[in-house]
Design brief:
This protein is an alpha/beta fold and 423 residues long. It is built from 12 helices and 16 strands.
Length: 423
Amino acid sequence: MPLGQTIRVRVAAPPTEARRLCTRLTRGGIPAELDDGSSRAEVLVAVDPGTDLTQFRGRVGWLVVLGTPGAAYFAAGADDVVMPGEPELLFRRLRAVLERLDLVSRVERLNERVTALEAGLADAAHDVRSPLQAVIGNAELLARDSSLTPAQRACAAACARQGVRAMQLAERILEAAKQRSRDVLAIGAVDLGGLVEAAVAQAQALATQQGVTLTAVPPSRPVEIRADGQLLARVLDNLIANAIRFSPRGGVVEAEAWRASPRFVRLSVKDQGDGIAPTELPKLIAGLGPGRGLRIAREIAERHGGEIWAESSAGNGSRFFIELPLHPPSSRPSVLLVSDDTRWLREVSRTLKSACDVRTARASAARIGTKHTDLVLLDPDQKPGKKLEALRSEAKGAQVPVIELPSQMAASRLARTLAHLAV
């Protein structure tokens, strides 16, 4: 294997078969090695492992089983099952998994950078207000100074007006930062039909300017949900503006809302643009495309316990969907993560924080104490000891569940489950 090539896939199988499969995968561009039975694996391929997959789940991010029947393996905890004798299908599945993991990692890194940039911009807007106030005040004084010529007073008045404009810009930046960073949703009753109709009315001027017909299709019967109406309006504003922008003159953009199930509603925005290539669509939904509208829409949907996706094909336009529960999570579970591995703490915390209030601790300092705690999650690789036993005993007395979280992928599933169930 070339020096420096990262091993992301391991194979658990009888030695001869495992070596043969590793060789085929590596030659096909997917570096693979034999599983040693104890190391963590980003992706692991298990060949006919039996229906007890507990030996893998605690240390594997994504578990692919090569065997049959598939239903039994899925029930046992497999993330994917491939029929034996279909190497091309196995290659495609593995490449898709690796690309997805890379995409998630890129999104997280970009979100960290964007958050840092937004925080820096908000700090700058905050700090510039004081000098701007001084500039505006002095300019206004000069504009009223009778000892100056009319031209000089007019120039001072112009400076004051521009200073006020700059101040208003700084205030808008700070208000936007406040809206993005607020932890608690402003939950209230939201009429779904009224939400869609208001968003369409707001965008009618832009649609007329672009020569696009914009229509609203509210639910056939009134539907009321509990949500942050201001944030949902922001989602629709972004999606409708994008649809108008990418629709040709004479095209139609349709914003629709309906009751999708007893617990969920859906919103959609459909355009008649050129469509989006299949390879680009996942990137846009993940927030890697141009502009920030879709990333913001995804974050708002997830904060409500919902999700966003899209359907599109070249030449047939695009349709974006937002699915939301009738009632968002009423309270965020408080979760304590325990590990001596700072990377594990950071990655799992990042995954769970969209649905939970997360605090972290090393094993030697982990305490439930007086802080409200709904769940304790342990790193499965954390070495046992007296400190952990004391934590388990404390949690038992407080009736707080203690669970060994098998992988970061499991953390993602847990976050999604908590977001949908904590209503």
